[in-house]
């Protein structure tokens, strides 16, 4: 039996290691571009930008062991969620089959709704599995302190796919669909319904564990060819990588730490973001004009677009569902487009609000963008559950257009370099100071 005091000393030794520390150094904030002097940081410590509040670095309290525990739990939950009974329905004595998530996907595929099947496969299955695989690979390298092949490239792509993990969105969409189903039939729940919530929470927590600045510092120490240059004073002959936040010679095109492209400000950022946003505006029109969902039953055959569907739900006293669909299908997309327009105008011409307010607006657009997929996932769930002789739901053409609207607004936000807005703020502040002196 291990002595209690020996166990405590071993845990303390494993938990708090000097190898996890970051030395004091300077970085440029990826949000506002402010030069920040970071102190030496250890486990369970974090640092934010004093100008805009952006998180610069966060070191987990147990950064080597805890991620492997969470990724192991993630794999187990993923397998159980995909194979166990998820939802079922009993309507007027007609019991639908006990569906698993794989059955939901297979129903879409068999009934030739290939686009929605692909969307579900990518966002609910493939992307989370890819993230789990990358997360495990990177943290095995960190735990074992070995330089595994292509680990830097895998880390960079792991960071980029985080916004596309939509298991939590799918779970909320299930709750919305259940409110609709429960109004006319009895719903049965399987083990996967509870497990998917745990799976979503696990993925969210794993995403929060990923801090590029700390991870790339640890990985660079494992590669003798890639030395991290940490500066303690401002220099003009270097450029700060926006992905990993480490300095590189200004003459380089790519960061030798993380492999990302180097630039003072992202080239053609405003033009790319505006072009994608205009595409979203164009696609938004047919997404609200064409049929979003068709409901066939023994007594009726109803085809409805987004607006019609909201009024039908409201008149049928499904007002909670109506409000949710109205919010995610109309309010959020329109708000995203308007806010992105404000951000682009401010970055190109003149500030409409203070840069700090615009930064908060930008992060809100980034956060809220993926939640519009609730409407599409609701249709997918209803289509899978309502597949009986008494009633069935089929998606309409608008579902395809609306999915592209969601994707376009997300990519538009990602393409905008928010530092351009802070550049405008500095120019405005400098002009104001000169005016006061004059």
From TrEMBL:
Places the protein is found: Cell inner membrane
Domain of life according to the entry: Bacteria
Cross-referenced InterPro entries: PqiA-like (IPR007498), PqiA-PqiB_transport (IPR051800)
Record keywords, A-Z: Cell inner membrane, Cell membrane, Membrane, Transmembrane, Transmembrane helix
Residues passing through the membrane, by range: 64-87, 113-143, 164-183, 189-207, 274-293, 320-346, 367-386, 398-416
Primary residence: membrane
Protein name as catalogued: Paraquat-inducible protein A
Organism: Vitreoscilla massiliensis
